[in-house]
Design a protein that fits this description.
Layout: H1 3-7, H2 11-23, H3 28-39, E1 52-57, H4 67-76, E2 91-97, E3 104-110, H5 118-122, E4 128-130, E5 136-138, H6 148-152, E6 159-160, E7 179-180, H7 186-189, H8 196-203, E8 209-213, H9 220-227, E9 243-246
Parallel strand pairs: 1-9
Antiparallel strand pairs: 1-8, 2-3, 4-5, 6-7
Length: about 250
């Protein structure tokens, strides 16, 4: 390998390769996922041409409404453990109030699917990775539950599975001791369906969520982001999240 090629190997890539070597066959599925995410051809379904995103209009998001939260739990098999502090929740409602004006906003917060995800940067095994289309995921086969991603995420969007899992949705495998978070319902996206939270919000008539390709100038989400002001949570971190908010 040339000196230039050596210089291009990232710390994360080195650790992922090392983990695969140490773990042998058991770790191979996770490594293949990472390689696919980084190396798919542009004309394949998962492509860098696409940047999936979510736009949330907080003016239409009603305080106390948890339709999106319930839909997420149902779709992904997230069940109450009886202990609210450790209940799995991939999307949560945060109530904000401007102390100067008294204006209140109800804000759904989930994994922001950053262009530069800190959870991926700190993961020592490569379990946290970003697909070519911008969706940030966790490979449970090689997650060691170290919680580095939880500490690195500025959105508090990652958690650990504490309970024993049973009666899972086969499309959304979860594992005890593994980190997890919103996947944007990637299994639905790959079937050309909307994420469950967006579908529920639309069916209820709220229409507070728009999902689509941020890179497609003809998509509704791209046109709205271009026409109306939108906010990124913690824009100062320059992570370029795929989730945007209007009305904040």
């Amino acid at each position: 390998m040339s000196q230039d090629a050596n210089a291009g190997v990232s710390r994360r890539g080195f650790l992922a390769i090392s983990a695969a070597t140490l773990g042998g066959v058991m770790l191979a599925p996770g490594i293949r996922l990472i390689e696919i995410a980084a190396a798919r051809a542009p004309d394949e379904p998962v492509s860098r041409k696409v940047r999936w995103g979510l736009l949330i209009d907080t003016n239409k998001c009603e305080p106390g409404c948890d339709d999106c939260v319930k839909a997420c739990a149902t779709e992904n098999g997230l069940k109450s453990t009886g202990h609210p502090r450790t209940d799995p929740q991939w999307i949560r409602k945060v109530e904000l109030k401007d102390l100067r004006t008294g204006r209140a906003n109800s804000v759904p917060v989930m994994c922001q699917h950053c262009e530069h995800p800190p959870c991926v940067d700190v993961c020592p095994t490569g379990a946290s990775f970003k697909r070519a289309d911008g969706i940030v995921l966790v490979d449970r086969h090689i997650c060691i539950g170290c919680r580095y991603c939880i500490m690195a995420c500025p959105y508090k969007a990652r958690s650990i599975v504490f309970e024993q899992i049973s009666d899972q949705n086969s499309d959304v495998p979860r594992g005890n001791g593994c980190a997890e978070g919103c996947t944007l319902c990637v299994h639905r996206i790959d079937r050309e369906q909307q994420p469950a939270c967006v579908e529920a919000c639309t069916k209820a008539g709220h229409n507070a969520m728009v999902f689509g390709d941020l890179n497609d100038p003809n998509s509704e989400i791209a046109q709205r982001v271009a026409k109306y002001a939108s906010t990124q949570i913690r824009a100062d971190l320059e992570l370029n999240p795929g989730v945007r908010y209007q009305g904040l």
